[in-house]
Amino acid sequence: MTGERYQVVVVGGGMAGTVAALTAARLGARTLLVERSAELGGVASRAWVTPWQSFHSPRGRVVGGIPQLIVERLVEMGACLGHVPDPIGFAPSLTPVEPRAVAPLLVELAREAGVELSLETSLTGVEVEEGRVAGLTLARGGEESQVRAGAVVDATGSALVARMAGLPTELSEERQPASLLFRMSGVDGGEIIAYMEENPEEFVLNPDRRVLRLGYLAVSGFFSLVREARERGELRLLNRDRVLFFGLPSGDEVIVNTTRLEPPPTDDPSSPHYQRYYREGVEQVRELAGWMVRRLPGFARAEMTGLAQELGIRESFRLVGAYLLSAEDVLSGRHFADSVALGSFPIDIHRQDAGLESYPIGGEGDYGIPLGCLHHPTVANLYVAGKGASFSHRAFASARTIPTAMSLGQAAGILAFLASEGMAAGSPGLGESFGELARGLGHIHRPEQIVRDQLTRNFLSAD
Ligand SMILES: Cc1cc2nc3c(=O)[nH]c(=O)nc-3n(C[C@H](O)[C@H](O)[C@H](O)COP(=O)(O)OP(=O)(O)OC[C@H]3O[C@@H](n4cnc5c(N)ncnc54)[C@H](O)[C@@H]3O)c2cc1C
Predict the structure, then answer these.
(1) Which CATH superfamily is domain 4-174+315-458 in?
(2) Which of 33, 49, 311, 352 to mutate to test the pocket of ligand 1 (most atoms within 8 A of CB)?
(3) pLDDT class for 458, splitting at 50, 70, 90?
(4) What separation in Å is there between the alpha carbon of 228 and the centre of ligand 1?
(5) What confidence tens digit (pLDDT) does each residue in 269-304 have?
């Protein structure tokens, strides 16, 4: 294959892929990051998914290095509140982020690290030679070109490189629904919190009610109001038992994560199929936002001030790799000798009917994700990071979140760097070399590396 040669090519510039590219470039690899859209950040920037949850297990921070640096830079920009206690009590912390700030920061970080960026560029082909990805075909503005790669990270969110390379993948029949997120401004958080304190049975709440008084909004409930509205036919389109919304650092704005759509057959926003689902989402948003203003405490002076530009598609194709992480691994808090990242979010399944299913992590409240979840033995220089890695449907419902996706990206960036230097999966000494580079970057992949840090001081001082 001809074309420009890179040590590492990362396909997909979501949170997993961007962190993978930053990692490989920081380690010194000539790195290309290829992204289909005009922006980095994926679901976290274009579908407005926030808060990021969770950087912590009950025993401390389980994600470090570049993901933590991204949080610190967002805090400096005033676009993130840092790690705060979760008022819903679902996980030990959540990290509220202004999604509009994510893409510009990632481009700045890519420039600082020397990552070569190819935006508005789609992967269209993969060439495998002698058990290695030798090159990729990319399309930009109707023109195709080839690049050669020492190692490749598949961070497409749908294991697309793996599929094109002929590796086994799966698409669960029980795929979680998609959602179209939107922004409400002019929200009176004080009124909402007062209502929650008076009607705690209407919400899922952290047993430590002091967290509510910290003033950060994370709301899962208004159960009776939603039920009555559905009975009266005011919410005809919405198949939910609650509203779910989260405060933004600006103070009087929230992102509403409540709509539910059948997952579209494609994740490509330019496809006409995709557009039909997006339009359906817009109808749900129109109905729901109007109802919230009319009926929900705290929303009387609020208005809907924006729609995410892309649908939030929770679940797509995943690699069936050398190891398939199971729900049992997650629920028992299992750790592996070759873990490359840690997860800590409970299993959280948005069902196609109105409900949510969730299960806490056992053991110490965190689990390891082994190397085998990122690769398949037949293609030595390809690693899959983020939501396309090798998880069962139920394990995915924990490992899918943004902090874990970034941590997996960091692990894949280290592994791809090593593969480009001749140390692919299966090479003797890979574990030691991975561990050494991980330590240098502050990457956390073993329980003894968990950082016992404090949640954001401002929030704790309200005690
Ligand atoms: C509705 C919804 C709510 C969620 N809620 C939360 C939450 O509250 N907290 C939390 O932490 N997590 C949440 N998640 C999960 C989390 O947001 C995602 O799982 C995570 O962001 C996945 O990151 P990723 O980088 O693996 O994938 P993505 O963000 O999907 O990135 C994949 C990237 O690959 C690009 N790409 C795809 N195909 C190609 C191609 N052919 N060529 C080039 N580029 C390509 C895409 O454009 C995209 O930018 C939610 C997800 C959804 C959808």
Answers:
(1) FAD/NAD(P)-binding domain (3.50.50.60)
(2) 49
(3) very low
(4) 34
(5) 999 889 999 999 999 999 999 999 999 999 999 999
Q: Give pLDDT, residue 213.
A: 84
> Per the structure block, which two tokens stand in for 453?
């840090």
Do the beta carbons of residue 285 and residue 180 sit within 8 Å? yes
Using a 6 Å cutoff on CB, does residue 444 contact ligand 1?
no
SS3 82: coil
Nearest residue to 101 (alpha-carbon basis) of 248, 206, 218, 251: 248
Contact 452, 77 (CB under 8 A): no
Q: Which residue lies with its CA nearest to atom 4 of ligand 1?
A: 49
405 lines ligand 1 (CB under 6 A): yes
Calculate how far, in angstroms, residue 44's C-alpha sits from the geometric centre of ligand 1. 6
CA angle 101, 102, 104 (to 5 degrees): 75
Q: Is the CB of 242 under 6 A from ligand 1?
A: no
> Rounded CA gap, 27 and 246, in Å?
36
CA distance 189 to 6: 49
CA diameter of the chain:
67
Distance 407 CA to ligand 1 centre (A): 14
Ligand 1 center from residue 14 Cα (angstroms): 6
Low-confidence winner among 212-216, 452-456, 457-461 (lowest mean pLDDT): 457-461
Within a 10 A sphere around the Cβ of 69, how many other Cβ atoms? 15
Q: Which of 33, 54, 156, 318 to mutate to test the pocket of ligand 1 (most atoms within 8 A of CB)?
A: 156
Domain ranges within the chain, ordered by starting residue? 4-174+315-458, 182-307
Calculate how far, in angstroms, residue 47's C-alpha sits from the geometric centre of ligand 1.
8
